[in-house]
Amino acid sequence: MAVPKRKMSRSNTRHRRSQWKASVPTLVKTVENGRTVYSMPHRARVVEDAQGNALFMEYKGRRVADA
């Protein structure tokens, strides 16, 4: 395991940590059956019935997994 040779100052530690930022996910807006749905591109989406129960997962119009 790597061990630092010298103590890192508080200022340098905080400057290093401040560079890590969360990025906003890119969402795609689509309208399905009159409802506006936001989804992430290139991800499988869950297909639900009228009551909201998950039926299966779909990607590019194909069924890829059972939910």
Automatic annotation (TrEMBL):
Keyword Repressor in annotation: no
Biased composition (Basic residues): 1-19
Record-linked InterPro entries: Ribosomal_bL32, Ribosomal_zn-bd
Region annotated Disordered, chain positions: 1-21
Annotated keywords: Ribonucleoprotein, Ribosomal protein
The UniProt record lists the keyword Ribosomal protein: yes
GO BP annotations, alphabetical order: translation
One Gene Ontology cellular component: large ribosomal subunit
Domain of life: Bacteria
GO molecular function annotation: structural constituent of ribosome
Coiled coil: none
Stated family: Belongs to the bacterial ribosomal protein bL32 family.
Protein name: Large ribosomal subunit protein bL32
Biological classification of the source: Bacteria, Bacillati, Actinomycetota, Actinomycetes, Micrococcales
